[in-house]
Amino acid sequence: MSAEAIPSERQQAVLDAVLELLVEKGDALTMTAVARRASCSKETLYKWFGDRDGLLSETVRWQASQVRAGNFDAQHLDSSALRDSLRDFAANWLSVISSRTSLALNRVAIGGAGSPPNTLGAIVLANGRFAIGERLKPVLEAGRAVGLLHFDDTEETFRTLFGLVARDVQVRLLLGEAIELKPDEILADAQRAVTQFFALYGARENPAKPGH
Amino acid sequence: MSAEAIPSERQQAVLDAVLELLVEKGDALTMTAVARRASCSKETLYKWFGDRDGLLSETVRWQASQVRAGNFDAQHLDSSALRDSLRDFAANWLSVISSRTSLALNRVAIGGAGSPPNTLGAIVLANGRFAIGERLKPVLEAGRAVGLLHFDDTEETFRTLFGLVARDVQVRLLLGEAIELKPDEILADAQRAVTQFFALYGARENPAKPGH
DNA sequence: ATTCAACCGTACCGTACGTTACGGTTCGGC
DNA sequence: GCCGAACCGTAACGTACGGTACGGTTGAAT
User: Fold this and answer.
1) Last residue of a domain, one of A65, A83, A113
2) Is A202 helix (H, G, I), strand (E, B) or coil?
3) Does residue A94 sit in the same domain as residue A190?
4) What's the number of CA atoms in the CB half-sphere (13 Å) around residue B81?
5) Does residue A211 carry a pLDDT above 50?
6) Strand C bases, protein C-beta under 7 A
7) A212: distance to nearest CA of chain B, Å?
8) pLDDT at position B116, please?
9) pLDDT digits (tens, 9 = 90+) for B103-147
10) Containing domain of residue B113, as a range?
11) Are B86 and B39 found together in one domain?
């Protein structure tokens, strides 16, 4: 597979097997185990993906292609619509970073990010943090255009929103703490983050009252 | 070494060698390389630290014992003193999580956090995220006691401050992005985080004007 | 001077994994 | 029905590493 090609159905099945094993075994994933789980030969793995790193890279892209959340349209943008969009984004982001597959992929990417070439880390960043940023910035700027938000630097503003949403959750999960996020907790957390975000960047009329 | 003992000077030299190699080689650290770098025998390594995991655990504790920042006293607590304390905390925390040694240790801990027993991840969390929380909470509560801060849940409040300080920096660094944080940038970032924090939790007189 | 414990350097063992090679099988095209 | 490509299952190779064993050396206590 070249870096741009879409994996065939058979190849997708292999990549799903990789995801399964990554969740189960963590970085102790072996090519033999992948071949056995996917009922394919190791020779095929190497023909399709080049080497172990290529297989993992393709797995990252495959998983990323599955979590693209719905787009946010900038139509009928009043305050509550913007708040809803941001809340949905935050909730989606929280459930992604706390999903077992995302955690497993981030772990192997981080574990291998020590010494170059650091292919996995770059791919994860491009498909995770930066992809979400590019999808959200138009929403923030649309909110600013209609006077609902006040800020200068879109990138900086997004980073603050990112911090308010993720807080210490991602690092704690990556380090193995067993945090269970139920759907309603995720929604409440997302709501809190958005409320705080509007307290910082929202239009000044109707000052928010954060704190609990 | 038992889990509680203080390493001897010779042992500290070994642990420093581990830190060096961890920064250089990442998770590809081998016992042979440690022995060679530290000019000691592998037999001694195993006698002192039990096994590879024990060596890494002791290294985490050793590094953590070196980054304890100065305590914050709650005397003469006016608004600017509290802001300074929080800013110093934030700046210290940013420089710690962006240091090469901390990054290397977090990477190996995260890489091994996939499958139990996850000793390293727990140790890193206890000495990092949770230790900093326990040291900062008294400051927040002292600020609340004198009416400078308004909040209900100390833990929740700290987590928000954590998010405002770290934002996406830690994850991006862990994934291998080459972000250089100069001291003045760290200080400016810390200042921004504290300003935003006071906008959310500060006393209502003198409303802050965040955004840049 | 002797003893003894700690330690260094190195050789060694078992194992596990990435990668390659090969024989057998399936299946679409002719 | 035949051919060739793609693929499966497995065996094999080379290497690298964690962990152990052992002889030699130092240095302090007696």
Assistant:
1) A65
2) strand
3) yes
4) 11
5) no
6) 7-11, 16-23
7) 7
8) 80
9) 999 999 999 998 888 899 999 999 999 999 999 999 999 999 999
10) 72-201
11) no
pLDDT tens column, B153-210: 999 999 999 999 999 999 999 999 999 999 999 999 999 999 999 999 998 654 444 4
Q: Calculate the alpha carbon distances from A57 to A18, A60, A130, B181, B204 in Å.
A: 11, 5, 17, 29, 50
Q: Is the CB of B31 under 7 A from strand D?
A: yes
Do residues A133 and A168 share a domain?
yes
Element (H, E) at A191: helix A183-201
Domain count for chain A, please give it: 2
Which chain B residues have a beta carbon less than 8 Å from that of A25?
Answer: 114-115
Asked whether the CA dihedral A138, B212, B200, A205 is positive or negative, the reply is: negative
Do B140 and B151 form a contact (C-beta atoms < 8 A)? yes
Contacts of A210 in chain B (CB under 8 A): 200-201
Task: Give the ranges where B98-179 is alpha helix by DSSP (H).
Answer: 100-111, 119-127, 129-145, 154-166, 169-174
Phi-psi region of B211 (alpha: psi -120 to 50; beta: other; left: phi over 0): left
The answer to whether strand D lies under 7 Å from the CB of residue B111 is no
Identify the pLDDT of residue A117.
81
The CATH number of residue A191's host domain is: 1.10.357.10
On whether residue B142 sits in a domain, the answer given is yes
Q: Would you say A105 and A124 are in contact if contact means Cβ atoms under 8 Å apart? A: yes
Distance in Å from the first CA to the final CA of chain B: 50
Task: Return the pLDDT at A115.
Answer: 80
Angle at A120 (CA atoms; ends A69, B167), nearest 5 degrees: 60
